Amino acid sequence: MNQIENRQKQGVIHCVGHSPGGALAALTADWIKAGFGKTVYLYTFAAPRVGK
């Protein structure tokens, strides 16, 4: 079991990144939401667009 699965159901996860880190934060937030069904808040600063 990993740490994400061990978290309480009512908790939220914040993903934050700047520039290329913002793009990785966006991908990570999507992965967590899709794979674990957690509430995710995403904050990026000067990040390139991800996907289309």
TrEMBL record:
InterPro entries: AB_hydrolase_fold (IPR029058), Fungal_lipase-type (IPR002921)
A Pfam family matched in the record: Lipase_3
Superkingdom classification of source: Bacteria
Fungal lipase-type domain ranges (all copies): 6-51
Record's protein name: Fungal lipase-type domain-containing protein
Organism from which the protein derives: Thalassomonas haliotis
Origin organism lineage: Bacteria, Pseudomonadati, Pseudomonadota, Gammaproteobacteria, Alteromonadales
